[in-house]
Specification:
The protein has 196 residues and is of the alpha/beta class. The protein is 42% helix and 22% strand. A hairpin with a 2-residue loop joins strand 5 and strand 6. Helix 5 (130-140) runs antiparallel to helix 6 (145-159).
């Protein structure tokens, strides 16, 4: 069985990245996409099961694995609240022929791409403009004005990373952004990886 490839998605909050990923995974089974299963030190929520949505580790286990160099990327979001991707899990999925999808922050995206090189394609989903992003976030009516300001400030920072990604897709019209992303991912999966 052919080894899978990695497709890395990053984007500022509110850009529509999750919508695009979900559409790809639900409507294009021929791409054989599978989410990377991350680790977290938080407790399971609702019906979440270990090894399905996440691998649930204690903060101590998480730190031990960081010390052992087992993570491809990780972040301590709050004190003792870690999220990260185990190298061994990604390798298992690739060896099973799955094309592994990552939905990560910009720093994680850059790190994974550096680690895997030509086996990975990184895609940055960007808003048509900061003004358009602000109006989307305001239109959701789910965040207080100060939260929207924080998200905009973070988006401006994240946009400085856009050129570090292999591909950029502007999500102005969702259907067009989906079609553009599908074309990029399909082409990437079809090409054979040159081993260095």
């Amino acid at each position: 069985m052919a080894r899978g490839k990695l497709i890395i998605f990053s984007a500022p909050s509110g850009t529509g990245k999750s919508t695009i990923i979900s559409w790809l995974m639900n409507h294009h089974p021929e791409l054989n996409l599978a989410f990377s299963i991350s680790c977290t030190s938080r407790a399971p929520r609702g019906t979440e099961r270990n090894g399905v949505e996440y691998f649930f580790l204690s903060p101590e286990e998480f730190r031990q694995r960081i010390d052992n160099g087992e993570f491809l990327e990780y972040e301590e979001v709050y004190t003792d609240r870690f999220y990260g991707t185990l190298k061994s899990q990604v390798e298992r999925q690739l060896e099973a022929g799955q094309n592994v999808v990552f939905d990560v922050d910009v720093k994680g995206g850059v790190n994974i791409k550096q680690h895997y090189g030509n086996e990975a394609m990184s895609i940055f989903i960007q808003p048509p403009s900061i003004a358009a992003l602000r109006s989307r976030l305001e239109g959701r009516a789910t965040d207080a004005p100060e939260v929207i300001d924080q998200r905009i400030a973070r988006a401006e920072f994240e946009l400085t990373y856009a050129e570090k990604f292999d591909q950029r897709v502007v999500n102005d019209v969702l259907e067009q952004a989906e079609a553009d992303t599908l074309a990029l991912v399909s082409e990437f999966i079809k090409t054979t990886t040159k081993t260095t």
